[in-house]
Amino acid sequence: MVAPTPPTEGNTPMDLRSWYVPTGRLSRRDFWLRYALPIGALQIVATLLDLALGLSSTEASSTADGWQASMTAGPIGIVVALALLVPSIASAVTRLHDRGHSAWWLLFDLLIVIGWIVLFVQYVLPGDEGPNEYGPPTGASTGHPQYA
Length: 148
What we know:
The protein is mainly alpha-helical. The protein has a domain at about 25-125.
């Protein structure tokens, strides 16, 4: 019997356990396609469901300075946001690991706007080419397999 070969980046099944374990490194491609986009899509769907079911409210008003808009979160959006909190943090940590940074870099989130830009730049830049303290690089482009 032939032993199965480990999957390489791009053809690994989505393993939900990996959404909760912030270890190792996560390639830029996997971060965006397997974490950021699905998490963002789920949050948008939850918000639209809240609005469609009348569970959240939106309000626009005119003020002396111009227009002001506000929206309150509904119960579906809150539950989805809480359910996705740990996967969001875990994926961000492993993406930062790919760049050679520790999880402490997530504290940049506390710096409104500037911190978000700093982290966004880290998420879109390519990871370290060689091994770093968090492990070898992942992905077919580096020749190293990515294990699920």
